[in-house]
Amino acid sequence: MTSSAPLVRPFAARIVKQDWADQVVSPMHDALPAAARASALADQPLSFLNVTRSSHDLPDLTIEELGQANAEALQRLLDAGAYDDAGAPHLYVYRVEGAHQEHVGIVAEVDLHGFADGRVLGHEAVQPARVDALVSHFDAVPARSELVALTHRKDAVVADVMARSQQNTPMLSVTDLTGCVQTVWRVSDEDIPRIVQALGDLPLFIADGHHRVAASVRRWEARGRPDGQGVLCVLYPEEQLHLLAFHRRVIGPVDAAQLLQAGVIELEVSKVDGPHRAVGELGLYVDEQWYALRPHDPKHRLGVAGLDVTTLNDVILRPLLGEEMSGVEYVSELVDLDEVTAACDADAGALFLLAAPSMDQLVEVAERREVMAPKSTYFEPKPRAGIFLRLPG
Protein backbone atom coordinates (compact mmCIF):
# COMPACT_ATOMS: atom_id res chain seq x y z
CA MET A 1 0.00 0.00 0.00
CA THR A 2 1.27 3.47 -0.89
CA SER A 3 1.23 6.02 1.93
CA SER A 4 -0.46 9.39 1.40
CA ALA A 5 2.44 11.09 3.21
CA PRO A 6 5.00 12.96 1.08
CA LEU A 7 7.73 10.67 -0.16
CA VAL A 8 10.42 13.28 0.54
CA ARG A 9 10.06 15.61 3.50
CA PRO A 10 11.94 17.94 5.86
CA PHE A 11 13.21 16.53 9.13
CA ALA A 12 14.17 17.90 12.54
CA ALA A 13 17.92 17.48 12.97
CA ARG A 14 20.58 18.31 15.46
CA ILE A 15 23.57 19.68 13.53
CA VAL A 16 27.12 19.27 14.78
CA LYS A 17 28.52 22.59 16.01
CA GLN A 18 31.23 24.21 13.91
CA ASP A 19 33.70 24.13 16.81
CA TRP A 20 33.24 20.38 17.19
CA ALA A 21 32.86 19.36 13.58
CA ASP A 22 36.50 18.58 12.75
CA GLN A 23 36.65 16.18 15.72
CA VAL A 24 33.27 14.51 15.18
CA VAL A 25 32.61 14.24 11.43
CA SER A 26 33.98 11.00 10.00
CA PRO A 27 33.89 8.79 6.91
CA MET A 28 31.26 6.08 6.92
CA HIS A 29 32.33 3.00 8.90
CA ASP A 30 32.54 0.77 5.84
CA ALA A 31 34.37 3.38 3.75
CA LEU A 32 37.60 2.92 5.69
CA PRO A 33 39.83 -0.18 5.56
CA ALA A 34 40.11 -1.96 8.89
CA ALA A 35 43.62 -0.65 9.64
CA ALA A 36 42.70 2.96 8.86
CA ARG A 37 39.54 2.65 10.94
CA ALA A 38 41.48 1.25 13.92
CA SER A 39 43.94 4.13 13.68
CA ALA A 40 41.15 6.70 13.53
CA LEU A 41 39.37 5.16 16.50
CA ALA A 42 42.58 5.27 18.53
CA ASP A 43 43.52 8.82 17.52
CA GLN A 44 40.06 10.43 17.34
CA PRO A 45 38.14 9.67 20.56
CA LEU A 46 35.30 12.03 19.58
CA SER A 47 34.93 10.76 16.02
CA PHE A 48 31.46 9.54 15.06
CA LEU A 49 33.20 6.29 14.11
CA ASN A 50 32.97 5.45 17.82
CA VAL A 51 29.17 5.40 17.48
CA THR A 52 29.18 3.02 14.50
CA ARG A 53 31.75 0.44 15.61
CA SER A 54 31.20 -3.14 14.54
CA SER A 55 32.24 -6.50 15.98
CA HIS A 56 35.37 -6.25 13.82
CA ASP A 57 36.41 -3.21 15.86
CA LEU A 58 35.49 -4.67 19.27
CA PRO A 59 35.68 -8.46 18.79
CA ASP A 60 35.71 -9.27 22.51
CA LEU A 61 32.25 -7.77 23.13
CA THR A 62 28.90 -9.48 22.74
CA ILE A 63 26.34 -7.91 20.40
CA GLU A 64 24.56 -6.42 23.42
CA GLU A 65 27.80 -5.04 24.86
CA LEU A 66 28.78 -3.59 21.49
CA GLY A 67 25.43 -1.83 21.18
CA GLN A 68 25.77 -0.42 24.67
CA ALA A 69 29.30 0.84 23.94
CA ASN A 70 28.14 2.60 20.78
CA ALA A 71 25.14 4.14 22.55
CA GLU A 72 27.43 5.45 25.29
CA ALA A 73 29.74 6.98 22.67
CA LEU A 74 26.84 8.94 21.20
CA GLN A 75 25.65 10.02 24.63
CA ARG A 76 29.13 11.38 25.38
CA LEU A 77 28.91 13.59 22.30
CA LEU A 78 25.47 14.83 23.33
CA ASP A 79 26.53 15.43 26.95
CA ALA A 80 29.60 17.34 25.76
CA GLY A 81 27.42 19.73 23.75
CA ALA A 82 28.78 18.75 20.32
CA TYR A 83 25.36 19.24 18.68
CA ASP A 84 22.89 22.09 18.46
CA ASP A 85 19.38 21.53 19.74
CA ALA A 86 16.94 20.25 17.14
CA GLY A 87 14.88 22.99 15.58
CA ALA A 88 11.98 22.96 13.13
CA PRO A 89 12.07 20.47 10.26
CA HIS A 90 14.29 21.60 7.38
CA LEU A 91 15.91 20.44 4.17
CA TYR A 92 19.62 20.97 3.53
CA VAL A 93 21.98 21.29 0.60
CA TYR A 94 25.09 19.20 1.26
CA ARG A 95 28.30 19.38 -0.77
CA VAL A 96 31.13 16.87 -0.42
CA GLU A 97 34.45 17.70 -2.09
CA GLY A 98 37.11 15.01 -2.42
CA ALA A 99 40.50 15.11 -4.06
CA HIS A 100 39.15 14.75 -7.59
CA GLN A 101 35.34 14.91 -7.38
CA GLU A 102 32.50 16.70 -5.67
CA HIS A 103 28.85 15.84 -5.11
CA VAL A 104 26.00 18.17 -4.22
CA GLY A 105 22.62 16.90 -3.06
CA ILE A 106 19.55 17.54 -0.93
CA VAL A 107 19.44 16.00 2.56
CA ALA A 108 15.92 14.95 3.51
CA GLU A 109 13.90 12.19 5.10
CA VAL A 110 12.44 9.67 2.65
CA ASP A 111 9.33 7.79 3.72
CA LEU A 112 9.83 4.07 4.26
CA HIS A 113 6.65 3.32 2.33
CA GLY A 114 8.50 4.49 -0.77
CA PHE A 115 11.12 1.74 -0.41
CA ALA A 116 8.38 -0.87 -0.03
CA ASP A 117 6.06 0.24 -2.84
CA GLY A 118 8.64 0.80 -5.59
CA ARG A 119 8.89 4.57 -5.66
CA VAL A 120 12.48 4.10 -4.47
CA LEU A 121 14.28 1.24 -6.22
CA GLY A 122 17.47 -0.57 -5.30
CA HIS A 123 19.85 -2.30 -7.65
CA GLU A 124 22.24 -4.30 -5.47
CA ALA A 125 21.85 -7.49 -3.46
CA VAL A 126 22.49 -7.38 0.28
CA GLN A 127 24.40 -9.73 2.54
CA PRO A 128 22.08 -11.08 5.29
CA ALA A 129 24.77 -11.06 7.98
CA ARG A 130 25.47 -7.36 7.41
CA VAL A 131 21.74 -6.57 7.58
CA ASP A 132 21.48 -8.52 10.85
CA ALA A 133 24.39 -6.55 12.32
CA LEU A 134 22.84 -3.23 11.28
CA VAL A 135 19.47 -4.16 12.77
CA SER A 136 21.23 -4.82 16.08
CA HIS A 137 23.09 -1.52 15.79
CA PHE A 138 19.92 0.46 14.97
CA ASP A 139 18.13 -1.16 17.91
CA ALA A 140 20.92 -0.09 20.26
CA VAL A 141 21.51 3.35 18.71
CA PRO A 142 18.21 4.48 17.13
CA ALA A 143 19.54 7.99 16.37
CA ARG A 144 20.59 8.22 12.72
CA SER A 145 23.41 10.17 11.13
CA GLU A 146 24.65 7.97 8.28
CA LEU A 147 23.08 9.19 5.03
CA VAL A 148 21.73 6.75 2.45
CA ALA A 149 22.57 8.11 -1.02
CA LEU A 150 19.77 8.20 -3.60
CA THR A 151 19.89 9.46 -7.16
CA HIS A 152 17.34 10.83 -9.62
CA ARG A 153 17.14 12.15 -13.13
CA LYS A 154 17.96 15.82 -13.76
CA ASP A 155 15.28 18.25 -12.56
CA ALA A 156 15.18 22.02 -13.14
CA VAL A 157 13.56 22.86 -9.78
CA VAL A 158 16.12 20.87 -7.81
CA ALA A 159 18.99 22.38 -9.79
CA ASP A 160 17.68 25.92 -9.23
CA VAL A 161 17.23 25.51 -5.48
CA MET A 162 20.64 23.89 -5.01
CA ALA A 163 22.39 26.61 -7.02
CA ARG A 164 20.69 29.49 -5.18
CA SER A 165 21.22 27.90 -1.76
CA GLN A 166 24.95 27.66 -2.38
CA GLN A 167 25.12 31.42 -2.97
CA ASN A 168 24.26 31.96 0.69
CA THR A 169 26.57 31.77 3.68
CA PRO A 170 26.93 28.10 4.70
CA MET A 171 25.80 27.04 8.14
CA LEU A 172 28.70 24.58 8.44
CA SER A 173 31.98 23.78 6.71
CA VAL A 174 34.38 21.08 7.85
CA THR A 175 37.35 19.07 6.58
CA ASP A 176 37.47 15.51 7.92
CA LEU A 177 40.46 13.29 8.68
CA THR A 178 40.71 12.19 5.02
CA GLY A 179 40.91 15.77 3.76
CA CYS A 180 37.36 15.68 2.39
CA VAL A 181 35.57 19.06 2.65
CA GLN A 182 31.87 19.14 3.53
CA THR A 183 29.64 22.20 3.40
CA VAL A 184 26.01 22.55 4.48
CA TRP A 185 23.38 25.14 3.60
CA ARG A 186 19.80 25.26 4.86
CA VAL A 187 17.14 25.34 2.15
CA SER A 188 14.91 28.41 2.53
CA ASP A 189 11.41 27.83 3.92
CA GLU A 190 9.77 29.09 0.71
CA ASP A 191 11.73 26.56 -1.38
CA ILE A 192 10.84 23.52 0.74
CA PRO A 193 7.40 22.88 -0.86
CA ARG A 194 8.95 23.11 -4.34
CA ILE A 195 11.64 20.56 -3.51
CA VAL A 196 9.21 18.21 -1.76
CA GLN A 197 6.92 18.26 -4.81
CA ALA A 198 9.71 17.94 -7.38
CA LEU A 199 11.52 15.05 -5.69
CA GLY A 200 8.28 13.32 -4.77
CA ASP A 201 7.31 13.17 -8.45
CA LEU A 202 10.60 11.61 -9.57
CA PRO A 203 11.60 7.94 -9.55
CA LEU A 204 14.39 7.55 -6.99
CA PHE A 205 17.17 4.97 -7.02
CA ILE A 206 19.47 3.79 -4.21
CA ALA A 207 23.06 4.63 -5.08
CA ASP A 208 24.70 3.66 -1.79
CA GLY A 209 23.28 2.25 1.43
CA HIS A 210 21.33 -0.86 0.40
CA HIS A 211 22.18 -2.60 3.68
CA ARG A 212 21.07 0.38 5.78
CA VAL A 213 17.81 0.51 3.85
CA ALA A 214 17.23 -3.22 4.28
CA ALA A 215 17.84 -2.96 8.03
CA SER A 216 15.52 0.06 8.33
CA VAL A 217 12.76 -1.68 6.37
CA ARG A 218 13.07 -4.85 8.47
CA ARG A 219 12.72 -2.92 11.75
CA TRP A 220 9.79 -0.94 10.33
CA GLU A 221 7.98 -4.05 9.16
CA ALA A 222 8.53 -5.70 12.55
CA ARG A 223 6.63 -2.77 14.09
CA GLY A 224 3.71 -3.11 11.70
CA ARG A 225 4.78 -0.51 9.12
CA PRO A 226 3.71 2.59 11.07
CA ASP A 227 3.21 5.83 9.14
CA GLY A 228 5.63 8.71 9.53
CA GLN A 229 8.81 6.62 9.52
CA GLY A 230 11.64 7.44 7.15
CA VAL A 231 15.26 7.01 6.17
CA LEU A 232 17.78 9.85 6.38
CA CYS A 233 19.00 10.36 2.81
CA VAL A 234 21.00 12.62 0.53
CA LEU A 235 19.44 12.85 -2.93
CA TYR A 236 21.80 13.50 -5.84
CA PRO A 237 20.89 14.46 -9.40
CA GLU A 238 22.38 11.83 -11.68
CA GLU A 239 24.97 14.23 -13.11
CA GLN A 240 26.39 14.62 -9.58
CA LEU A 241 26.98 10.89 -9.19
CA HIS A 242 30.28 9.36 -10.24
CA LEU A 243 30.07 5.57 -10.18
CA LEU A 244 33.17 3.54 -9.40
CA ALA A 245 33.91 -0.18 -9.47
CA PHE A 246 34.95 -2.83 -7.02
CA HIS A 247 37.58 -5.21 -8.36
CA ARG A 248 37.81 -8.82 -7.18
CA ARG A 249 40.96 -10.29 -5.67
CA VAL A 250 41.08 -14.07 -5.30
CA ILE A 251 43.17 -14.98 -2.28
CA GLY A 252 45.90 -17.42 -3.21
CA PRO A 253 47.20 -19.83 -3.88
CA VAL A 254 45.30 -20.30 -7.13
CA ASP A 255 46.05 -22.52 -10.10
CA ALA A 256 46.84 -19.94 -12.81
CA ALA A 257 46.39 -22.41 -15.65
CA GLN A 258 43.00 -23.51 -14.34
CA LEU A 259 41.93 -19.90 -13.89
CA LEU A 260 42.90 -18.96 -17.44
CA GLN A 261 41.15 -22.02 -18.83
CA ALA A 262 37.93 -21.45 -16.87
CA GLY A 263 36.36 -18.89 -19.15
CA VAL A 264 37.73 -19.85 -22.59
CA ILE A 265 34.37 -21.11 -23.89
CA GLU A 266 32.88 -17.62 -23.53
CA LEU A 267 35.97 -15.41 -23.27
CA GLU A 268 39.00 -14.81 -25.44
CA VAL A 269 42.12 -14.58 -23.25
CA SER A 270 45.11 -12.55 -24.42
CA LYS A 271 48.25 -11.24 -22.74
CA VAL A 272 48.54 -7.46 -22.37
CA ASP A 273 51.32 -5.19 -21.15
CA GLY A 274 49.51 -3.69 -18.16
CA PRO A 275 46.19 -3.29 -16.30
CA HIS A 276 43.20 -3.70 -18.64
CA ARG A 277 39.77 -2.33 -17.81
CA ALA A 278 36.97 -1.66 -20.29
CA VAL A 279 33.18 -1.90 -20.30
CA GLY A 280 32.19 -5.31 -21.59
CA GLU A 281 35.59 -6.84 -20.82
CA LEU A 282 37.63 -8.04 -17.85
CA GLY A 283 41.21 -7.52 -16.79
CA LEU A 284 43.14 -10.26 -15.00
CA TYR A 285 46.45 -10.34 -13.13
CA VAL A 286 47.80 -13.74 -12.22
CA ASP A 287 51.25 -15.33 -12.06
CA GLU A 288 52.87 -11.88 -12.56
CA GLN A 289 51.15 -11.36 -15.93
CA TRP A 290 48.27 -9.11 -17.09
CA TYR A 291 45.53 -10.45 -19.38
CA ALA A 292 42.50 -9.08 -21.20
CA LEU A 293 39.35 -11.25 -21.24
CA ARG A 294 36.95 -10.36 -24.06
CA PRO A 295 33.65 -12.10 -24.89
CA HIS A 296 33.60 -14.18 -28.06
CA ASP A 297 30.01 -12.99 -28.51
CA PRO A 298 29.77 -9.37 -27.29
CA LYS A 299 26.03 -8.98 -27.90
CA HIS A 300 24.16 -6.71 -25.51
CA ARG A 301 22.19 -8.40 -22.76
CA LEU A 302 19.58 -6.55 -20.70
CA GLY A 303 19.71 -5.92 -16.98
CA VAL A 304 21.91 -7.96 -14.68
CA ALA A 305 22.76 -10.42 -17.45
CA GLY A 306 24.60 -7.64 -19.29
CA LEU A 307 26.91 -6.68 -16.43
CA ASP A 308 30.60 -7.53 -16.47
CA VAL A 309 30.44 -8.66 -12.85
CA THR A 310 27.75 -11.18 -13.82
CA THR A 311 30.04 -12.63 -16.49
CA LEU A 312 32.91 -12.85 -14.02
CA ASN A 313 30.80 -14.52 -11.33
CA ASP A 314 28.94 -16.95 -13.59
CA VAL A 315 31.72 -17.92 -15.97
CA ILE A 316 34.77 -17.99 -13.69
CA LEU A 317 34.37 -17.41 -9.96
CA ARG A 318 31.40 -19.63 -9.07
CA PRO A 319 32.55 -22.62 -11.16
CA LEU A 320 35.99 -22.44 -9.55
CA LEU A 321 35.18 -21.33 -5.99
CA GLY A 322 31.65 -22.53 -5.36
CA GLU A 323 28.37 -20.68 -4.93
CA GLU A 324 29.59 -18.62 -1.98
CA MET A 325 32.76 -17.59 -3.85
CA SER A 326 34.76 -17.86 -0.63
CA GLY A 327 38.22 -16.40 -0.83
CA VAL A 328 37.19 -13.34 -2.85
CA GLU A 329 38.06 -9.85 -1.57
CA TYR A 330 36.43 -6.65 -2.86
CA VAL A 331 38.97 -3.98 -3.84
CA SER A 332 38.02 -0.36 -4.49
CA GLU A 333 39.23 0.96 -7.82
CA LEU A 334 40.81 3.83 -5.86
CA VAL A 335 43.26 1.44 -4.19
CA ASP A 336 46.79 1.48 -5.61
CA LEU A 337 47.00 -1.50 -7.98
CA ASP A 338 50.68 -1.98 -7.20
CA GLU A 339 49.70 -2.84 -3.61
CA VAL A 340 47.11 -5.36 -4.77
CA THR A 341 49.33 -7.04 -7.36
CA ALA A 342 52.10 -7.26 -4.76
CA ALA A 343 49.65 -9.11 -2.50
CA CYS A 344 48.83 -11.45 -5.40
CA ASP A 345 52.51 -12.13 -5.98
CA ALA A 346 53.00 -12.85 -2.28
CA ASP A 347 50.26 -15.47 -1.97
CA ALA A 348 49.98 -16.58 -5.63
CA GLY A 349 46.54 -15.02 -5.85
CA ALA A 350 44.74 -13.30 -8.72
CA LEU A 351 43.07 -9.95 -9.40
CA PHE A 352 40.15 -9.30 -11.75
CA LEU A 353 39.62 -5.71 -12.90
CA LEU A 354 36.12 -4.41 -13.64
CA ALA A 355 34.80 -1.19 -15.15
CA ALA A 356 31.97 0.49 -13.23
CA PRO A 357 28.43 0.01 -14.56
CA SER A 358 26.94 3.11 -16.14
CA MET A 359 24.08 5.10 -14.62
CA ASP A 360 21.82 3.81 -17.40
CA GLN A 361 22.72 0.22 -16.45
CA LEU A 362 21.98 0.95 -12.79
CA VAL A 363 18.56 2.37 -13.65
CA GLU A 364 17.81 -0.48 -16.07
CA VAL A 365 18.57 -3.09 -13.42
CA ALA A 366 16.48 -1.28 -10.81
CA GLU A 367 13.50 -0.77 -13.11
CA ARG A 368 13.57 -4.45 -14.09
CA ARG A 369 13.38 -5.22 -10.33
CA GLU A 370 16.66 -7.13 -10.58
CA VAL A 371 19.66 -6.86 -8.28
CA MET A 372 23.35 -6.73 -9.01
CA ALA A 373 25.81 -8.84 -7.07
CA PRO A 374 26.94 -7.27 -3.76
CA LYS A 375 29.73 -4.71 -4.16
CA SER A 376 29.04 -4.13 -7.86
CA THR A 377 29.46 -0.37 -7.67
CA TYR A 378 29.92 2.59 -5.36
CA PHE A 379 30.82 6.23 -5.59
CA GLU A 380 33.28 8.67 -4.10
CA PRO A 381 33.37 10.92 -2.20
CA LYS A 382 30.73 9.30 0.00
CA PRO A 383 28.62 11.36 2.40
CA ARG A 384 30.09 11.54 5.89
CA ALA A 385 28.62 10.62 9.26
CA GLY A 386 28.24 12.87 12.26
CA ILE A 387 26.96 16.07 10.63
CA PHE A 388 23.20 15.51 10.79
CA LEU A 389 21.74 13.72 13.80
CA ARG A 390 18.09 12.71 13.70
CA LEU A 391 16.96 11.51 17.10
CA PRO A 392 14.12 8.97 17.34
CA GLY A 393 10.75 10.58 17.83
Give the arrangement of secondary structure elements.
Blueprint lengths: L7 E2 L4 E2 L2 H7 L9 H10 L19 H18 L11 E6 L4 E10 H6 L2 E2 L6 H13 L7 E5 L3 H10 L6 E4 L5 E6 L5 H9 L3 E5 L1 H13 L7 E8 L5 E2 L1 E5 L5 H7 L4 E6 L9 E5 L2 E7 L12 H14 L6 E5 L4 H11 L2 E4 L5 H9 L10 E2 L8 E2 L4
Parallel strand pairs: 5-9, 6-10
Antiparallel strand pairs: 1-4, 2-19, 3-4, 3-8, 4-10, 6-9, 7-8, 11-18, 12-16, 12-17, 13-15, 14-15, 14-17
Structure write-up:
This protein is an alpha+beta fold and 393 residues long. It has 2 domains: 8-242 and 380-389, no CATH class; 246-355, Conserved hypothetical protein from pyrococcus furiosus pfu- 392566-001, domain 2, CATH 3.30.1760. It has helices spanning 18-24, 34-43, 63-80, 112-117, 128-140, 156-165, 192-200, 210-222, 256-262, 308-321, 337-347, 359-367, and strands at 8-9, 14-15, 92-97, 102-111, 120-121, 148-152, 172-175, 181-186, 204-208, 230-237, 243-244, 246-250, 267-272, 282-286, 289-295, 328-332, 350-353, 378-379, 388-389. The strands form 4 sheets. Strands 1, 3, 4, 5, 6, 7, 8, 9 and 10 form a 9-stranded mixed beta sheet that branches. Strand 3 and strand 4 form a beta hairpin. The chain is globular. The mean pLDDT is 91.
Q: What tags apply to this protein structure?
A:
single chain; 393 residues; alpha+beta; Conserved hypothetical protein from pyrococcus furiosus pfu- 392566-001, domain 2; 2 domains; 9-stranded mixed sheet; 32% helix
